[in-house]
Amino acid sequence: MPEQDFTETTSKEATVPEINSQAGTITKLQPPAQPQDEWLKYGEQVSSFLATLPEYVGSFFNQYKQPLVTIGLIVGAIVGVKVLLAVLDALNDIPLVAPTFELIGIGYSVWFVYRYLLKASTRKELTSEITTLKSQVVGKQIPEA
Fold first, then answer.
1. Smallest Cα–Cα separation from 87: which of 74, 102, 97?
2. What angle do CA 98, 81, 112 make, to 5 degrees?
3. What are the boundaries of each domain within the chain?
4. Which of 41, 42, 70, 145 has the fewest Cβ atoms nearer than 10 Å?
């Protein structure tokens, strides 16, 4: 490799003030070269962005209200199901609670069959109650069969 001649250059802007050689004296550092105007400019930009942020958020919510509500309901339903499953799992770990719930479920099933499913007249009553509930939920009159 050929050797290159390097020359040492010094610039007056790049020089560091000499440190006092006396013991016990403190030298002051020079202020930063970057002017305060640039920091003020950045501060004004951040301030203007924060000032218009509520308008941006409001217009975004107004524009996408239906999808945001739908996503919120889905997330809420998922969280609700997870909490419900956690509570049921905690209850299932308690001794005698799971068999008690099973007995309650069996008892309710026996009562429901006896009350609504054994006789034709009570089956008709159950069908009319279900039809009424459907019409209340949907909001339309459902024709009876």
1. 97
2. 55
3. 39-138
4. 145
